[in-house]
Amino acid sequence: MQGTGVALVTPFRNGGEVDFGALGTLVDTVTQGGADFLVVLGTTAETPTLSKEEKADVVACVRERNAGRLPIVIGIGGNCTAGVVRAIEETDTTGIDAVLSVTPYYNKPSQQGMYEHYRAIAQHSPLPVILYNVPGRTGVNLAASTTLRLAHEFSNIVAVKEACGSLQQVAYILRDRPAGFKVFSGDDNMALPMIALGADGVISVAANVYSGIFCPMVAQAMQGRFDLAAPAQLRLQEAVDALFEEGNPTGIKTAMAVKGMIDGSLRLPLVAGSEHLADKMRALIAKYDL
């Protein structure tokens, strides 16, 4: 896996139920737009609001619609190590290529605690494991030294999704990582700078709605064609920033609703984007021909 992974939203109908038809169409849309792999049940999917049965149905829907075209990564994380291990063991991993597991949130464990958490996951996971560091959501930063310790000690910990916002931290990981260990940007607007340093791609929110521009941009950057990728980044910059003004996935669902891709409904405690945000999305989509 490298290039653009799309952190798929979970579309809901106005009544709150999962819109599997829209989800299937989204899989086709991002695949045609140039996505390299799919990520299900991540942050953008509103996974904490899904029941165990709905999670299984979402995975089954994506797996069936994908029909083996792209690798699939499944998000399984939490702040109870035993619970995460149990969830991984109980999940049907047929057709799934890797597990993306976020650092424990709320507990604020030490670096040693996070090391032990991921050690337990690595020892029990039947699939390769991708670390996910997003301090802005979890309240704790997985230090570069801990990421590297895990990467060197466990052959089935194969990558990290880095959303720390620090190119300095990313640079140390890229410099000292073992052969084959991949580094993905967890921030859309950090993708090109990270790829320029040697990163392997991005796990993207924006590609849900702008895949036809975003995915080729990442592919060009991966080929070293920053003369082509940079103008695309600048074209997308303002629209991508707007996706996060009212939080994720509120912004991405607002943009997708503006483009007629989904209903735009979210589940509490998240709420739909404001009319101001929707108007801004319409203006930016028109201004930059998105």
Short summary of the structure?
It is built from twelve helices and eight strands. The chain has helices spanning 20-32, 52-66, 81-90, 111-124, 135-138, 144-153, 167-176, 191-197, 207-222, 226-242, 250-258, 275-287; strands spanning 3-7, 37-40, 72-75, 98-102, 129-133, 157-162, 182-185, 201-204.
What is the helix fraction of residues, given as a range? 40-55%
The backbone outline, from C-alpha atoms, is: globular
Number of alpha- plus pi-helical segments: 12
Strand order, main sheet: write it out.
Answer: 1-2-3-4-5-6-7-8
What does this structure look like?
- The protein is of the alpha/beta class and 290 residues long.
- It has one domain (3-210): TIM Barrel (Alpha-Beta Barrel).
- The chain is built from 12 helices and 8 strands.
- Strands 1-2-3-4-5-6-7-8 form an 8-stranded parallel β-barrel, surrounded by 7 helices.
- Strand 3 (72-75), helix 3 (81-90) and strand 4 form a beta-alpha-beta unit.
- Helix 4 runs parallel beside helix 6 (144-153) and helix 9 (207-222) packs antiparallel against helix 10.
- The longest helix has 17 residues, at 226-242.
- The radius of gyration is 18 Å and the shape is globular.
Question: SSE layout and pairings?
Answer:
Elements: E1 3-7, H1 20-32, E2 37-40, H2 52-66, E3 72-75, H3 81-90, E4 98-102, H4 111-124, E5 129-133, H5 135-138, H6 144-153, E6 157-162, H7 167-176, E7 182-185, H8 191-197, E8 201-204, H9 207-222, H10 226-242, H11 250-258, H12 275-287
Parallel strand pairs: 1-2, 1-8, 2-3, 3-4, 4-5, 5-6, 6-7, 7-8
Helix pairs in contact: 1-2, 1-9, 3-4, 4-6, 6-7, 9-10, 11-12
